[in-house]
Design goal:
- By secondary structure, this protein is α/β, with parallel strands linked by helices.
- The protein has a single domain, classed as FAD/NAD(P)-binding domain, CATH 3.50.50.60.
- The protein has 18 helices and 22 strands.
- Strands 1, 2, 8, 9, 10, 11 and 22 form a 7-stranded mixed sheet that branches. It has a 5-stranded antiparallel sheet with strand order 5-16-17-18-14.
- Strand 12, helix 10 and strand 13 form a beta-alpha-beta unit.
- The N terminus and C terminus are likely disordered.
- Bound molecules: flavin-adenine dinucleotide and 2-acetamido-2-deoxy-beta-D-glucopyranose (10 copies).
- One 2-acetamido-2-deoxy-beta-D-glucopyranose binds next to helix 12.
- GO terms for molecular function: flavin adenine dinucleotide binding; oxidoreductase activity, acting on CH-OH group of donors.
- InterPro entries: FAD/NAD-bd_sf (IPR036188), GMC_OxRdtase (IPR012132), GMC_OxRdtase_N (IPR000172), GMC_OxRtase_C (IPR007867).
- One of its GO terms (biological process) is secondary metabolite biosynthetic process.
- It comes from Apodospora peruviana.
- This is GMC oxidoreductase.
Length: 640
């Protein structure tokens, strides 16, 4: 059935697009200077020890060390490394071909023909922000209000209104070139953005393909599609969004450049790289320090311990934060006992409630592009005149098409807009026996939390305030990648009972375990087909469907195609240390403190109880900024 049926092919396609410019220039790496190179040079104790020098970890470290009295140590598994694979913005996907990723495969996915999937996450100072595709987006307001809704007796402000100041603080918005803005009719609204409060930038390329605006306009023919004036407005619709890019250097802007490179001269901010944390050290149920394998040690039993006077802060990401809690004896007793780890705190939610955005392939081409759509993105791999122009332009002036990462426009649409059966699917979800779709022996509190999430999403399915559908707009053919923004299935990330430390965590997406995901994805594919080839607005483009192909027609055809082609991950792992009440299987409370443990918080993507309807990085930065405030330092001080 068709070709191009795997994500790998799609990524290869994206890479091909710009392959011949990959090594066109090489960024001179920053010297590793104030980094603590040897474990014996560490202080015996720090106020805070942060596990994981990634997106959230470096953000919190930066904010806490704004107070010169506060000492912070960040321990990072990966290296402090510089590479053009990290800094290059063009194509947005060089990070994927970099050596700075974990080597983890999921367990075979029963509903995907037993396929396994690579579990992608950055293993480098900067974490996944160093390897991601640089799409700078937020979810809708309802996504963040949903997090707060699980806490009937609010003690903190986990809502859209409560997070908006942190979204603003987290990034410095740089406006696009006025000429590009005007020619592409770009819209944005600086009300939703900060300026100068962060070293991480939301920037824009200095070129847009002319078809992008026209392609956005095609959505005006779909009833109910909104066009919010800004990507950060908290509304679904069709809009422009920026890129995690330093506008002056025209390079990736990420946690390392924004929260470490300029801050490392602070004598109270220490970072040790190439060091794997193996355990949170507990005295009873109080976190007192961290055990890690220092750089150079080859033996995973030979650890060094460092003491945290105030708190241990876990920021190892959606895959590794639950893994480290379980290794430390904090997690579901059944899982820990099987691995012969003594249970310190029986916390059934650790590693459960695992979510990621499933991606589908659906590829369309236009056989008659109007001249106003040219040059189109396809020129970058089919037209050598255009390619060499773009390469020269970038090498001389760092402008032009090679300053584009993965594009700056997309559709994020609510379910009633894309599906004629939103009410019936919503009712089916409401009346489901929710726990029947979780693993056998799931703890009743985790099942209760899942049911609460499903009822919230059932409401969202019949409203127009939550986006369920995402397709990137390129200004030419479709990219082929369509995203289900609110999957209903839930997976697990657990330690391997056979020698947990020696092995990677066992990652099971449990893709499509809730059969309503197949119904939702079917409607996502049918909408995509109708949008491209059953739409008077696109007729003059002479569209043609390449994938899935016209032999896919019935519900069964779609179900088969979905099983064959779905990627269970858009590299957005969340939910495994969910911020929910303990009675709902939560792992952290509204202050991000781990239930049942003193002086231990989680501050990364794993605390999101449900996915936002958008790529997760900007949300992680906002969560980390709020976490720094909750911890109570740094944020009180004004930055210069
Ligand atoms: C390939 C890819 C593409 C993506 N594209 C986008 C995009 O375009 N837009 C977007 O918004 N989001 C994107 N994302 C998602 C986004 O980057 C992540 O959601 C976000 O960066 C996660 O932040 P985090 O702090 O939770 O984890 P991370 O940034 O991954 O940080 C965790 C850190 O902990 C370290 N660590 C783990 N275990 C240990 C240990 N035992 N000891 C010491 N350190 C440890 C890791 O090495 C890592 O540095 C993408 C992600 C990937 C992987
Ligand atoms: C997938 O694996 C399971 C368990 O090993 C097996 O029962 C099943 O037949 C396999 N399915 C496919 C499609 O190969
Ligand atoms: C909310 O408060 C009520 C009344 O104090 C209490 O009974 C209930 O358990 C609380 N719920 C949660 C989730 O904390
Ligand atoms: C920007 O957004 C604010 C808040 O919604 C609104 O009041 C304002 O009118 C918007 N500005 C423009 C130019 O659309
Ligand atoms: C959502 O949008 C669709 C499409 O425009 C419309 O038919 C429906 O009435 C809207 N639903 C609500 C609850 O506003
Ligand atoms: C553990 O905590 C107890 C009670 O606070 C204290 O007396 C003891 O010294 C601590 N042990 C260690 C090893 O720090
Ligand atoms: C264990 O670590 C210590 C101190 O870091 C080092 O001296 C020793 O050689 C290491 N042993 C092994 C087996 O790696
Ligand atoms: C190739 O690109 C150049 C420069 O943009 C353009 O003039 C030319 O028409 C293109 N050729 C084709 C075959 O599209
Ligand atoms: C680079 O910019 C300069 C100044 O705007 C311009 O004169 C020159 O033509 C540009 N170079 C290329 C290769 O377009
Ligand atoms: C719901 O599913 C669970 C788990 O499969 C099962 O134990 C329970 O009996 C089911 N409840 C009903 C009412 O069918
Ligand atoms: C094509 O679009 C029309 C009008 O929107 C719709 O009634 C029809 O069902 C669509 N055809 C298919 C095959 O979905």
């Amino acid at each position: 059935m068709g070709y191009f049926t795997t994500l790998a092919t799609a990524v290869a396609w994206t890479t091909l697009l710009t392959a011949n410019v990959c090594h066109a220039y090489h960024h001179a790496g920053l010297a590793a200077s104030s980094i603590i190179a040897r474990a014996q040079d560490l202080l015996p104790s720090y106020d805070y020890i942060i596990i994981g020098g990634g997106t959230a970890g470096l953000t919190v470290a930066d904010r806490l060390t704004e107070d010169p009295q506060t000492t912070v140590l960040v321990i990072e598994y990966g290296p402090l490394a510089s590479s053009s694979a990290i800094t290059t913005v063009s194509g947005g996907f060089y990070g994927l071909s970099s050596p700075y990723l974990y080597d983890i495969m999921s367990v075979p996915q029963l509903n995907l023909g037993n396929r396994t999937t690579a579990v992608m996450a950055g293993k480098i100072v900067g974490g996944s922000s160093a390897v991601n595709a640089m799409m700078t987006v937020r979810g809708t307001a309802q996504d963040y209000d949903r997090w707060g809704s699980f806490f009937p007796n609010k003690t903190s402000d986990w809502t859209w209104d409560g997070l908006l100041p942190y979204f603003k603080k987290a990034l410095t918005f740089a406006e696009p070139d006025p000429a590009v803005k005007e020619s592409a009719k770009m819209t944005y609204n600086t009300t939703f953005w900060g300026k100068g409060s962060s070293g991480v930038y939301a920037g824009w390329p200095s070129f847009q393909y002319p078809g992008t605006t026209a392609q956005m306009d095609l959505y005006k023919h779909i009833p109910g599609v909104e066009f919010p004036g800004d990507s950060g407005a908290g509304r679904p619709g069709v809009y422009w969004f920026p890129t995690f890019m330093d506008p002056n250097r025209v390079e990736r802007s990420y946690a390392r450049t924004g929260h470490y490179d300029d801050q490392k001269k602070r004598s109270n901010y220490h970072l040790i790289a190439d060091s794997r944390v193996t355990k949170i050290v507990l005295n009873g149920t109080t976190a007192t320090g961290v055990a890690f394998i220092p750089a150079g040690s080859k033996q995973y039993t030979n650890t060094t311990t460092v003491t945290a006077r105030k708190e241990v802060i876990l920021a190892a990401g959606g895959i590794h934060s639950p893994y480290l809690l379980q290794l430390s004896g904090i997690g579901p007793q059944r899982v820990l006992t099987e691995a012969k780890i003594e249970t310190v705190v029986d916390l059934p939610g650790v590693g459960q409630n695992f979510q990621d955005h499933p991606m589908l392939m659906a590829t369309y081409q236009y056989r008659s592009l109007p001249s106003s759509w040219k040059p189109s993105p396809e020129y970058m791999f089919s037209n050598s005149t255009f390619q060499s122009w773009a390469t020269t332009l970038f090498n001389t002036n760092r402008t032009g098409p090679l300053s584009i990462a993965t594009g700056n426009a997309a559709a994020w649409l609510p379910f009633p807009v894309i599906s004629p059966r939103s009410r019936s699917i919503s009712s089916l979800l409401t009346s489901q026996n929710h726990s029947a779709h979780l693993p056998p022996n799931t703890h009743p509190t985790v099942a209760a939390g899942y049911a609460a999430q499903m009822l919230s999403l059932a409401t969202a399915l019949r409203q127009n305030n939550t986006a369920f559908y995402n397709a990137v707009i390129t200004g030419g053919a479709s990219t082929g990648l369509i995203v289900d923004l609110h999957p209903l299935s839930r997976g697990t990330v657990n330690i391997d009972p056979q020698d947990p430390l020696a092995k990677t965590p066992v990652v099971d997406y449990r893709a499509l375990n809730n059969p309503l995901d197949v119904s939702i994805m079917t409607d996502i594919l049918r909408f995509t087909r109708n949008f491209h080839i059953n739409n008077t607005a696109t007729a003059q483009l002479r569209p043609v469907e390449i994938i899935p192909g016209q032999d896919v027609q019935t519900d069964q055809d779609f179900a088969d195609y979905i099983a064959e082609s779905t990627s269970p991950s858009e590299f957005h792992p969340v939910g495994t240390c969910a911020m929910m009440p303990r009675e709902l299987g939560g792992v952290v409370d509204e202050e991000l403190k781990v239930y049942g443990v003193n002086r231990l918080r989680v501050v990364d993507a794993s605390i999101m109880s449900t996915l936002p309807g958008g790529n997760t990085c900007q949300t992680v930065y906002a969560v980390a900024e709020k976490a720094a405030d909750l911890i109570g330092y740094g944020a009180k001080l004004k930055r210069g």
